[in-house]
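Write out this protein's structure.
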Amino acid sequence: MSDRPRIFDDLAGVAGGAISALAGLREEAEAMVRARIDETLRKLDLVRRDELDAMAEMAANARAGQEAAEAKLADLAARVAALESAARPRK
């Protein structure tokens, strides 16, 4: 016969089952809390940090493109003015 009574083995099995059940409940509770937070953020019409960073990067790229276009336009305007002054008939 074994040194331990069978009741200890049964108690250990019940305790193990209870621990795994509690772990499952914890995961389910965390998922529910995350879902509630996401729902609340959607209702408040807030944005996530990664979305804000992406929009800031897009705005910076657009600003750089606009500045480059303005510089090119100024250069072209200067060249047109120079060509017009050179093409004017002199008296």
